[in-house]
């Protein structure tokens, strides 16, 4: 059995996330338990329950610890139970994850609907959610499923819908997190903490025009642009760059590329003619066009 823990709730856990538990029925592979712990922690959940594991010491097995990969605290806090009914405990809404359609049992829903229903349920202060997953080989029994209020499906490829149990748990945890973040008052995107990156600001028109002129010179230097037969290359190139609203950093990056192109063309010209390239990177722009093979 697992060691006793001092509290059901991690001290820094958001209350709404702490009211969701993930239950693995009769797990047999320690690696899946470790992967499940990692999946739970990455999505901000903390409550992992095992029902009648094949190995009573499964939480301490090397494979479990290795695949938890930083989520060892979830394994330490995990509880084992003799029956699913005991593991469900105070849960007010339980979802039985299964790949098979069930003729008898609770009403079905998909995993996204389950997350939405859970968010609505957790608006109540005493609500508790349980996500129940079966054994690696046979899934949940009918007896397990009738203890839950909903049957839940992941809309996978119908020709091959067999998900590893820890992968299924990861998908469930992700959907739950996405649905619960607004209730927890948390953002769905990383926070920059108001740090501003000036390089991401749109480049000014003057800087873009200077870059376009530099880019045209680079195309001449490497022989991509034939000044005698330019056709529509230059206006199309200008339209492409202007349409994409380059940032200041992107303009600098393109200009660095132009400088490197011109420098390389100058070195190639020097090797062919024996001339010595000038110290200025853009000095090679004045290579005669007949020597650029344009």
Automatic annotation (TrEMBL):
Q: Which residues form the tRNA/rRNA methyltransferase SpoU type domain?
A: 20-173
Q: Which InterPro entries match?
A: Alpha/beta_knot_MTases, RNA_MeTrfase_TrmJ/LasT, SpoU_MeTrfase, tRNA_m1G_MTases_N
Q: Tell me one GO molecular function of this protein.
A: methyltransferase activity
Family of this protein: Belongs to the class IV-like SAM-binding methyltransferase superfamily. RNA methyltransferase TrmH family.
Q: Which UniProt keywords apply?
A: Methyltransferase, S-adenosyl-L-methionine, Transferase
Pfam families from the xrefs?
SpoU_methylase
User: Which intervals of the chain are annotated as region Disordered?
Assistant: 271-294
Q: Would you tell me the protein name for this molecule?
A: RNA methyltransferase
GO BP annotations of the record are:
methylation
């Amino acid at each position: 059995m697992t060691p006793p823990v001092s509290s059901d709730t991690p001290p820094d856990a958001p209350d709404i996330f702490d009211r969701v538990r993930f239950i693995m029925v009769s797990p047999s592979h320690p690696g899946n338990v470790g992967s499940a712990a990692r999946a739970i922690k990455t999505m901000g959940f903390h409550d992992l329950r095992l029902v009648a594991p094949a190995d009573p010491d499964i939480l301490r097995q090397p494979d479990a610890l290795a695949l938890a990969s930083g989520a060892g605290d979830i394994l330490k806090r995990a509880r084992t139970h003799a029956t699913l009914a005991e593991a469900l405990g105070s849960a007010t809404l339980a979802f039985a994850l299964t790949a098979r359609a069930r003729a008898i049992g609770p009403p079905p829903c998909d995993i996204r609907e389950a997350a939405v229903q859970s968010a609505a349920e957790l608006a109540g202060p005493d609500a508790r959610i349980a996500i129940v997953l079966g054994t690696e080989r046979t899934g949940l029994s009918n007896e397990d499923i009738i203890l839950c209020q909903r049957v839940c499906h992941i809309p996978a490829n119908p020709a091959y819908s067999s998900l590893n149990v820890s992968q299924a748990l990861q998908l469930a945890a992700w959907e739950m997190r996405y649905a619960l973040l607004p209730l927890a008052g948390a953002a769905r995107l990383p926070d920059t903490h108001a740090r501003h990156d000036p390089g991401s600001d749109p480049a000014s028109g003057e800087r873009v025009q200077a870059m376009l002129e530099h880019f045209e010179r680079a195309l001449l230097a490497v022989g991509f642009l034939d000044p005698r037969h330019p056709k529509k290359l230059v206006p199309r190139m200008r339209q492409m760059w202007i349409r994409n609203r380059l940032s200041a950093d992107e303009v600098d990056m393109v200009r660095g590329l132009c400088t490197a192109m011109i420098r390389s063309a100058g070195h190639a010209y020097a090797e062919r003619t024996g001339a010595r390239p000038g110290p200025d990177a853009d000095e090679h722009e004045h290579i005669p066009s007949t020597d650029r093979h344009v």
